[in-house]
Amino acid sequence: SWCPEMALLDIDSVPGTTCLECVDILHGADIPFVVMGGDLDRPLLGKCIYAGASAVVDKSSPLSDLFGVIGRQLAGEVLLREDLRQRLIESYDRETQARLAPFEVLTRREKYILSELTEGRAAESIARRASVSISTVRSQIKAILQKLGVNSQLAATALVQQAGWTLDDNTVADASDHASFIARDPSQTSS
Questions:
Q1: b/e per residue, 99-109, with b = 16+ CB within 10 A?
Q2: Distance (Å, whole) CA 183 – CA 105
Q3: What is the per-residue pLDDT for 188?
């Protein structure tokens, strides 16, 4: 089957999430790719470099620069100066930390419950699955909403999706033991 020698991705013409999906597809297919963008300090460019982009090209550069990058890519040359590569990855790291910071204030129990809400489970279902009272779960949901600065479970779920937050694998060591996890959360002093 046919496979391109390389790809050129204009991140300004594709919405952020779709752009990252394209990056993942290109990286997964082991297709070298170059990214074009209008702001070389954008965290999205850093994500692209982190995910395997060979280079970034500023859209304000002359067309001859773009052709030069494509030619060097096809020749197998290193395309990105290490200082620029590091600056872009650091930008991505800072943006990621800032995006995920609101979730760091949640206790282990709250993170678990937020994860359950994000999966579409109602408070009653979470309480049943965890063998705790519905009032305990509602109390935790109220704390989650307050800590995240949102007014509804839907807004909390939207914030999770927007931030790309997921439940850390270390938070719940044994997913089959939800009840004891909720009942024994040492990071929570009161229910």
A1: eeebbeebbbb
A2: 19
A3: 45
The three-state secondary structure class of 150 is coil
Q: Which parts of the chain sit beneath pLDDT 50?
A: 170, 172-191
Q: Which residues of 124-144 are buried (b: 16+ CB within 10 A; e: fewer)?
A: eebbeebebeeebbeebbebb
Q: What is the 3-state secondary structure (H, E, C) of 19-78?
A: HHHHHHHHHHCCCCEEEEECCCCCHHHHHHHHCCCCEEEECCCCHHHHHHHHHHHHCCCC
Q: Output the six-digit token pair for 36.
A: 């074009």
- How large is the C-alpha radius of gyration of the chain? 22
User: Which amino acid makes up residue 161?
Assistant: Q
Q: Tokens representing 66?
A: 């773009």
Between the CA atoms of 17, 20, 21 and 24, what dihedral angle is there, to the nearest 10 degrees? -160
